[in-house]
Fold:
Amino acid sequence: MLHRFANPGQFLRLSGKVLPWLYWPGILLIAASLIWGLFFAPDDWQQGDTVRIMYVHVPFAWLASAGYLSLAACSFISLVWRHPLADLAAGEIGPVGAGFTAVCLATGSLWGKPTWGAWWVWDARLTSVFVLLLLYLGHIALVRAFDDPIRGYRAGAILALVGVINLPIIKFSVGWWNTLHQPASIGLTGAPTIAATMLWPLLFSAIGFTLLFAAIAVTRTRAAVMERRIRSLLMVRASSATEQKALS
Amino acid sequence: MTHLPYIVAAYIVALGTPIAMATEALFRVRAARRRLDALGPRRSRGSV
Structure:
């Protein structure tokens, strides 16, 4: 089943239909949630209006980790089933994840300065997210480091799978160490410790940015599939031209 | 809003980066599609 849906031609057809359903709801949800968060959500009793940075920072923090998990999943599929589409998807998720992680760090820094009085501290949470950015950058570099792209994808996949160890460190860093970063307000188990008036715009924003992340990753993978098709077409043309030359 | 510059900067970074990435990706697809179309009809493209 995986091979049927992961066929590059099938992927191009299917993703062409899915993409508008990722882009437009994503853009609408982001616009609605950010207007809600900026103008209608209440101030925090301690942090005042700086809490509004949460509506952009937290979704990017979640997506930095979730993006890495999807990169690792593609890497696993690539190593086990040797599927070329998984290689291309992993190669294209990497830069998107790196961009989202960089935004998470930048918005966190912009939140930290008025709240903690510092742009950056070598706190366990901040450091582990910085390591995540380095893992993304390492993956991008490794995939492009070999003349043979297959070897690049294999090396990148191994790095991505080893780097998964950093995800629980990010998640539990605020519990395992004394950190300046606040603990999670929303978890999979237990009720959120955040007021509903702040929770809803945050969830809408998270869903919107998740759709946008997926849309960008799928668009980039489409481009990569087409570029690969162009390269193979050019190679076929070049080899047939050489054959004709040899015959004549 | 006492911390307006920080909030505005955070929103610009958070919106600007994905918009730039999405635009770049869409342009990449468009360029690849044009090259594919220039290379010949669909039926002769073969598999990836």
Remarks:
- Residues 4-36 of chain B form one domain.
- DSSP finds one helix and no strands in chain B.
